[in-house]
Write a structure and sequence with these properties.
This protein is α/β, with parallel strands linked by helices. It has a single domain, classed as Alpha-Beta Barrel (TIM Barrel). Helix content is 39%, strand content 11%. The strands form three sheets. Strands 5-12-11-10-9-8-7-6 form an eight-stranded parallel beta sheet. Strands 1-3-4 form a three-stranded antiparallel beta sheet, with no helix packed on it. Helix 8 packs across helix 12 and helix 15 crosses helix 16. Flavin mononucleotide binds next to strand 12.
Length: 422
């Protein structure tokens, strides 16, 4: 289903995409953002503690979250020289569409709580830059609206397990015009997020005095995100969960929307039967599950530990990618969790991914500067991939192979010169 494209025709240059169409309202602010981590640093003070904690945190002790970043240091890149890298192309074909860069915006629930209309802002910037945007089912923006903003968007379902809901959801996603049905499979139950309890974030949202004070201390977010959302959209409801019943973000029914512990391969196969387009399972870490997904007719998988937000100490996708690729057959292999740099992406591709998803930084970018922020984030990452390709002596993603890197050598005793002199 996927291939790394070779030629650069008809693909916008990523570093210019988006900026052409949109006047940059936030230019001065974004001058200080030099890489994806800078968004978090700048936006942190602007967000209520509870909202910042919801996005930034991981499950339990945060070991999986930290390892998602640390793991990239286990591979060191090996450059090649004098190979004429004056023309470079980072485009990739996923599910029949040629995208400008090998990264996508990951599905993130409750995005509109973080930045005003963040789903639409991310979808818009992704459209202009020609990269995939994945809408979470756990969002307040109806998928039909996102389909109009960006007809190349994908949809990530938290699906009810009954057959009727499955059929109706497949029909709705198709009618909304979203191209790829992603089923999130690593949330059979909600995880243990102590950091949310500590910072006061709850879903359903409970307006405690502490949360109210958090809002008062962050007037910019209260006016530009909370009040504006309430004024323009009314009380937000999660409108993409099930066809008939859309709980508001204050509803007690909301705690049941994500985890569906009864979901099994049987229901995944039912989706496969009802959904005519590309079907992707997100949240796979085992080779065996990759093999079952392939046999069940999935077109793709996302190797992911949910950004360290589900099972703490879960393996990083980078630790299991090569083994999973060996079982993937013709499936498109995507990966996410911790990818922040062009070098991270190229390392993931070297282990067998066709492209990667990036989560938190794009949401922080939307919170900081709306679609301008997201477009800036896409440009920064695309530029890093472009420069890194050149420095590696490569002109396109088709040349990325395991040979571009070596595994870090375990630290041993310092080596002695043979003659003993120092
Ligand atoms: C705030 C937030 C909400 C998320 N909500 C969803 C979701 O609704 N569905 C889903 O499949 N993944 C969800 N994820 C996980 C992301 O899709 C992705 O796997 C993860 O963020 C990747 O890790 P990264 O943030 O380190 O790039 C969420 C992540 C964040 C940060």
């Amino acid at each position: 289903m996927s291939s790394h494209a070779a030629a650069a025709d008809s693909v916008p240059v990523p570093s210019e995409a988006g900026a052409r169409r949109r006047p940059q309202r936030h230019r001065r602010l974004l001058r200080h953002v030099l890489n994806l981590d800078d968004f978090e640093r700048l936006v942190r003070r602007r967000l209520p503690r509870a909202v910042y904690g919801y996005v930034s945190g991981g499950a339990e002790s945060g070991a999986a979250y930290r390892n998602n970043r640390d793991v990239f240091a286990n591979w060191h890149l090996v450059t090649r020289i004098l190979r004429d890298v004056s023309r470079r192309d980072q485009s990739v074909t996923l599910f029949g569409h040629r995208y400008a860069s090998p990264f996508a915006i990951a599905p993130m629930g409750a995005s509109a709580v973080v930045g005003y209309d963040a789903d639409n802002r991310m979808a818009e910037a992704a459209r202009d830059a020609n990269i995939p945007f994945v809408l979470s089912a756990n969002s307040i923006t109806p998928m039909e609206e996102i389909g109009r903003t960006n007809p190349h968007s994908w949809f990530a379902a938290y699906q009810q397990p009954d057959a009727r809901n499955i059929r109706e959801m497949c029909e709705r996603v198709a009618a909304a015009g979203l191209r790829v049905f992603v089923l999130t499979v690593d949330v059979p139950v909600g995880s243990n997020r102590e950091n949310n309890i500590r910072s006061g974030y709850t879903m359903p949202l409970r307006l405690t005095p502490r949360l109210a004070m958090d809002g008062v201390l962050h007037p910019r977010w209260s006016a530009a995100t909370a009040a504006r959302t309430l004024l323009r959209r009314g009380i937000p409801s999660i409108s993409n969960i099930e066809p008939r019943d859309h709980p508001t973000i204050f509803s007690r029914k909301l705690s049941a929307v994500t985890g569906h512990a009864a979901f099994s391969w049987q229901q995944a196969e039912l989706i496969r039967r009802h959904w005519q387009g590309p079907f992707v399972l997100k949240g796979i870490l085992s080779r065996e599950d990759a093999r079952i997904a392939r046999d069940a007719g999935a077109d793709g998988i996302v190797v992911s530990n949910h950004g360290g937000r589900q099972l703490d100490t879960a393996a990083s996708p980078m630790e299991v990618l090569a083994g999973i690729k060996a079982e993937a057959g013709g499936m498109t292999v995507l990966a996410d969790s911790g990818f922040r740099r062009g070098t991270d992406i190229l390392k993931g591709l070297a282990l067998g991914a066709d492209a990667v998803l990036v989560g938190r930084p794009f949401l922080f970018a939307a919170a900081l500067a709306g679609a301008d922020g997201v477009a800036h984030a896409i440009r920064l990452l695309a530029r890093e991939v472009d420069v890194d390709l050149a420095l590696l002596g490569l002109t396109g993603l088709g040349e990325v192979s395991p040979d571009i890197m070596i595994a870090r050598q375990p630290a041993g005793p310092p080596s002695q010169p043979p003659d003993g002199r120092g």
